[in-house]
Write a structure and sequence with these properties.
Largest sheet: 4 strands, antiparallel
Number of helices: 2
Order of helices and strands: EHEEEEHEEE
Structural class: alpha+beta
Helix content: 10-25%
Distance between the termini: 10 Å
Length: 98
């Protein structure tokens, strides 16, 4: 477990963020254009559209995005670039969930 003394603002961690319903792939595209390392676990599923079966990529964990960066850069994505997500807070420490 990471203690407060080990957590420095310039260190790189995987932060857990949530998005609105159905926005995971849009957030992924935005993070790709920003050049930010991220992870969204997805799988391929078959859906029926207009009478045809098509394969689509769907997230395994709904509304969840993992972002790897420093705390400062992670916050600037939401505040500066307007990426539609918010970070989950660890209530025991009051910090962003790592």
């Amino acid at each position: 477990m990471i203690t407060d003394k080990e957590l420095l603002p310039e260190d790189i961690f995987w932060y857990v963020a949530r998005t609105r319903h159905g926005q995971e792939l849009k957030v992924r595209d935005t993070l790709l254009t920003c050049g930010v390392e991220h992870f969204i676990p997805t799988t391929v599923a078959q859906r029926e559209r207009k009478g045809r079966r098509v394969r689509v990529q769907v997230p395994l964990i709904p509304n969840m995005v993992f972002v790897r960066s420093t705390q400062k850069d992670a916050l600037s994505l939401v505040n500066g670039r307007g990426v539609p997500m918010y970070y989950i807070i660890d209530h025991s420490t009051g910090r962003m969930l790592v």
